[in-house]
Amino acid sequence: MLYGYAVVGLYLLMSAALLGATLLLWWLLRPKKPNPLKLETYECGVQTVGDAWVQFRAQYYIFALIFVLFDVEAVFLFPWAVAYNRLGLYAVIEMALFLLLLLGGLLYAWRKGALEWV
After folding, report:
1. Which of 70, 55, 77 is nearest to 107 (CA)?
2. Could you tell me the pTM of the whole model?
């Protein structure tokens, strides 16, 4: 029984040694010539003007979450569509219920204005 713990301990010890060796090697090989130009904030090749921390409206995040929701819906629909010929009436009713629930969510988001980009 102690053999199993010894293997786990050896594995942890080896992984810590590998991590330490990698960090040490990185520290030894890195360039060590800092200057103020290298320490400046770089934002996609454009010189930053003002504060770089700009707050976005929450609506953009809600729009992205709705996109992810319907993207996941497509992932669930694909295997169902592939096996459609072998499915019975119960599976068709279940998928219709699933689609109605998602359609209800889409209509709710539309009425709340979550799909408006600006």
Report:
1. 70
2. 0.47
